[in-house]
Amino acid sequence: MERIIGKYGPPQSDTLIICIGGMHGNEPAGVKALEKVFEFLYKHRPPAQGRFIGVRGNISAIQQGKRMIHEDLNRIWSEANIKLARESPTLHSPEITELNQIFKVLDEIPFAAYKQKIFIDLHTTSGDNGTFVVANEYDNAKHLFESFKVPIILGLDQQLESLAIHYFIRHGFISFAFEGGLHQAAQSVDNLVWGIWTTLAQSGLISPVFFPDLSQTSQHLHQKFSRLPSILHLEHLHKIHENDQFKMKLGFKNFDKVHYGQLLAEDKNGPIYAQSNSYLLMPLYQTQGSDGFFLVK
Ligand SMILES: [Zn+2]
User: Fold this and answer.
1) Residue pLDDT, tens place only, 179-201
2) Helices (H) and strands (E) in the chain, counts
3) How many Cβ atoms are within 10 Å of 67's Cβ, its own excluded?
């Protein structure tokens, strides 16, 4: 499995878009979405006003179909870990080795040479109906976020440490995670493909006149999400600690409305109730992962 999924457009230009798929190995939709977009680009060769690069995330976890091998690749993008990964890639964890290989690609790109820089991290979730964007700021990319037609979640990234998007924010990128939907659903691939093309269009990298037909996905997202608020703020994150025996109650989907006092999950300490009237996000229905659920308003 190659680290680079594709490269397109002139390296000497004003715009740079970097996109990672498969940061979590059990989320192949991101890789598939990037493969689809690059396949189309290589076949049709539309003119490009910028550089677009697609990268595979946790390759050893992708090969095993697991979220991670030893630690979460999307929680180790601190400067200290990046230094470790550059200097002693094989002495720590399989994910530090993955980080080393990702930085072999990133370190070749002269970030400072680009005026407009965008980073997209492609994900999927274990609960249904989970198509949304996680961003740290809305106003810096208002037009882009508005054109996605999916809810934008703010404040969530601050609860999670050392995400890839944090690294790219530090380097002047507009940086966000695009959650496509359920892990294995074909619709999730389409939603992520939509997110990539929309970013290519809004950044001016490729004109939409050269795009494939995206009207089905556009209509699907409009029908599903036009009744939800376009911006939601994080209210609460339920963290899971080791041996908590966390168990989400069955049947919850992303963006289900929950009310104060509603039973959401159970662990060894007893029932876990909603702390406010809000929307539920990312209910955990898989064994790996340390975030039980999020509440947003
Ligand atoms: Zn993920």
Assistant:
1) 999 999 999 999 999 999 999 99
2) 8, 14
3) 21
- What is the 92 CA–ligand 1 centroid distance (Å)? 22
Same domain, 156 and 248: no
Same-domain pairing of 207 and 284: no
Residue 185 corresponds to which tokens in the numbers above? 């659903």
Of 208, 225, 242, the residue that ends a domain is 225
User: pTM here?
Assistant: 0.94
Q: How far is the CA of 246 from the centre of ligand 1 (A)?
A: 19
Q: 190 C-alpha to center of ligand 1: Å? A: 16
Distance 72 CA to ligand 1 centre (A): 9
Work out the pLDDT band at 1, boundaries 50, 70, 90: confident
Going from the Cα of 23 to the center of ligand 1, the distance in angstroms, rounded, reads 6
% of the chain beyond a pLDDT of 70? 100
Residue 181 Cα to ligand 1 midpoint, Å, equals 10
Looking at the structure, tell me whether residues 166 and 219 fall in a common domain.
yes
Cα separation, 186 vs 202, whole angstroms: 25
Can you give the residue range of the structural domain that contains 242?
232-296
Dist. CA 55 → ligand 1 center (Å): 15
Smallest CA-to-CA distance from 253 within 275, 279, 220 is with 279
Domains of the chain: total: 2
What is the average pLDDT score of the chain? Answer: 95
Domain closes at, from 184, 204, 225? 225
Distance 125 CA to ligand 1 centre (A): 7
